[in-house]
Design brief:
Number of helices: 26
Distance between the termini: 65 Å
Oligomer: single chain
Structural class: mainly alpha
Number of strands: 8
Length: 684
């Protein structure tokens, strides 16, 4: 007998699959992690600061308020001079057009008048007619200046030194030299020849505007790294409001930097890889049976990925509160299908991964670790559906108490307590009530068998058990006795008692096919084996294993129950008929396979318990007297024989466990077969 090193059974292909699973898990988790993980606060002026104490992690400027900054910018823009480009060619071209078209309107006798108008128009264009489609700025045009670009030089002109198109037209028609023939001016359509030749230079103007705005300092001071910004519960006044808002703006600016995004992704990937790798190493060293079973590894990593992705998506899209997510389902599922230590380690890894993307990781870790530990402790022995409901209620209460404790630590008085987070925890508790249907889905998806399923299979009204009680009543009673003995041993040595109990009830169901060939079902002294040869009898006895597996398939029993059926005799022999045949044919070579059960030998502690309880209970029925010495001798002989035959070589059961098993069997058989006193008869 030895403890099997399951890691030695893994091939390079198996190791590569697990490494690939780790990398895929890390990739998916990191892919969905929000890149913008800086702290965000809801800053309310005049309200208490309800977050943790805040200290500046870096130097940052204290920005002015929007109103103050706008007022200073408006003051600076009073010096703004928009740029206009003087187009001399445009004015000359419009004057030439006027001269050309003048003769078509008036006779040649007005040549002097035409020259005066053309000369006045040239004077107007020389001063400049401004484009009024773009505002010149300033509170009043009369107090504003502009920059006029002439070639490579720019000169500053007051707005009163240039004309708008309307002003130029009015100046032209009001000219004293043109009053002699004022009546013909409307016929000349002078508006068509007066167009802006000062074109707004948008690029230079905007550049000048931005330069003026840039001269206005956006910050009124600097907050230094390590400076205490605000304490929890402190009223947010105007000064602190500006300080906190400046910190948030600077944080956003820093986190938008591409180099920071790169380092963030690398850091997140390394963080998740270390956690997942550490958990994988834990499984390979301390839970090698789960590590060897690919479905167990896939289920654990799938749960971690699903809940991590859900938390990341909620943070990225700012949906509800992360406390609504029932992270406690992970330790519940793993505890039900595996064990407490694995459940705790998986939950710790999940909580640490999710804490990386949250604003208040310490509070989250405290609350969720409390929830996970509470769930694991409350599910030490899942035996009914109601336990899941109680677990949900207890977990919710524990989380609320932990949140209250954290609030009391940070609050200076009871009036400052806020209870918004408790609503989310209560909603999470209600979601936990869905654990049972999800547990059933997980059970069917990954091929596990929970204690609840085992208890349901133990119901004596199940078709297969009821059929056995009717068709093979002796076998049925034997199975009940074995289940009680096996459960007691399992509880004593720390094995799964409910699994042993249920496996024992079904281990002999193959005897239903030919019940009369088994001693416990015979009555009236009739033994059909007297009509058969030893080989035929042995084959009939051995067939109850294969027939039992067929019935298990027909009735859809879980694989873990089928394993009890296959291993309860291991690779042992039908010894009664084997010895008879050997004695009857001393000189012949015996084909031992004809008398050997198909096996395999037990490979779990629970299967070994069933083998011992089954053999001892069956043999105990043949004892001539039930003394402590005879029972002890029987138990020692049978179990020591199993050890000598190597039935437990592939099974992780210790000599200490076997010794405890012997003790339990002896004590229970003494109780079952105790001597009763004779009741006296009433004398007449």
């Amino acid at each position: 007998m030895k403890h099997i090193d399951l890691k030695a059974n893994l091939t390079w292909h198996d190791v590569a699959l697990r490494v690939l699973l780790v990398l895929v898990t890390v990739t998916i988790v990191v892919w969905f992690m929000p890149r913008d993980t800086q702290q965000k606060f809801k800053i309310e002026l005049g309200k208490p600061w309800r977050y943790a104490d805040l200290t500046a992690p870096f130097d940052f400027p204290i920005y002015k308020s929007e109103a103050k900054l706008k007022a200073e910018c408006d003051s600076a823009l009073l010096q703004f001079e928009p740029y206009y480009i003087l187009s001399a060619e445009l004015g000359e071209e419009r004057v030439r057009t006027f001269v050309k078209e003048f003769n078509k309107v008036l006779p040649s006798g007005y040549d002097d008048y035409k020259s005066i108008i053309a000369n006045r128009m040239l004077q107007l264009y020389e001063k400049g007619i401004v484009d009024t489609k773009e505002p010149m700025g300033g509170d009043s045009d009369t107090l504003h200046t502009i920059r006029v670009v002439k070639g490579k030089t720019a000169v500053t002109l007051h707005s009163s030194e240039v004309f708008t198109a309307k002003q130029a037209y009015k100046r032209l028609v009001d000219d004293p030299m043109l009053q002699t023939h004022k009546e013909i001016l409307p016929e000349l359509n002078l508006n068509d020849y007066i167009v802006p030749n000062l074109i707004y230079d948008k690029e230079r103007s905007e550049g000048s505007r931005q330069e003026l705005i840039a001269t206005v300092p956006k910050a009124s001071g600097v907050a230094l790294r390590g400076q205490k910004l605000i304490d929890r519960g402190t009223i947010v006044d105007e000064q602190r409001y500006l300080l906190l808002e400046s910190f948030q703006k600077e944080s956003e600016r820093r986190y938008q930097d591409e180099s920071h995004l790169t380092t963030t992704v690398i850091g997140e990937a390394l963080y998740v890889l270390l956690l997942i790798s550490g958990f994988t190493i834990f499984l390979s060293i301390f839970r090698s049976d789960y590590f060897e079973n690919m479905r167990s590894v896939v289920m654990i990593y799938m749960l971690i990925v699903v809940f991590s992705v859900v938390a990341s998506l909620m943070v990225s899209h700012n949906v509800f509160h992360v406390f609504i997510v029932p992270f406690t389902m992970v330790p519940i599922f793993i505890r039900v299908f595996m064990d407490s230590r694995t459940a705790f380690m998986a939950h710790a890894v999940l909580v640490l991964i999710c804490a990386c993307v949250l604003q208040h990781p310490l509070e989250f870790i405290a609350v969720e670790m409390t929830a996970g530990l509470t769930a694991i402790l409350s599910l030490r022995d899942l035996s009914s559906r109601s336990q899941l409901l109680w677990t949900a209620a207890i977990v919710t209460a524990a989380c609320c108490l932990m949140t209250l404790a954290l609030d009391l630590i940070g609050a200076s008085s009871f009036d400052m307590l806020t209870f918004s987070d408790y609503n989310y925890l209560i909603i999470c508790g209600l979601v936990l009530f869905c654990s049972y249907p999800l547990l059933y889905i997980m059970e069917k998806t990954f091929g596990y068998t929970s204690n609840i399923t085992l208890i349901e299979l133990s119901d004596m009204n199940k078709d297969l058990l009821r059929r056995m009680s009717e068709e093979a009543p002796g076998t049925f009673q034997h199975s009940i006795q074995v289940s009680n003995l096996g459960a007691e041993i399992a509880r004593k040595i720390g094995a799964k008692a409910q699994l042993v109990r249920t496996g024992a009830l079904y281990h002999d169901i193959g005897k239903i096919q030919n019940p009369i060939y088994f001693t416990e079902n015979q009555s009236g002294g009739i033994n059909p084996h007297e009509q058969l040869s030893d080989i035929e009898s042995a084959q009939l006895i051995i067939s109850h294993v294969t027939e039992g597996l067929k019935l298990a398939d027909k009735y859809n029993l879980p694989d873990v129950i089928k394993q009890f059926i296959a291993t309860h005799h291991g690779l042992g022999k039908a010894k009664y008929f084997y010895v008879n045949y050997k004695n009857a044919h001393p000189d012949d070579d015996v084909d031992e396979l004809l008398f050997t059960y198909p096996g395999p030998n037990p490979f779990t502690k629970e299967q070994a318990i069933l083998m011992m309880a089954d053999a001892v209970e069956a043999a105990s029925r043949s004892l001539p007297d039930y003394t402590e010495q005879s029972i002890r001798s029987l138990v020692d002989r049978i179990i020591d024989g199993m050890l000598a035959d190597g039935f437990f070589r592939d099974c992780p059961i210790t000599f200490r466990d076997i010794q405890y098993s012997k003790t339990v069997l002896i004590e229970k058989l003494k109780t079952i077969y105790h001597t009763r006193i004779s009741y006296p008869e009433l004398k007449k």
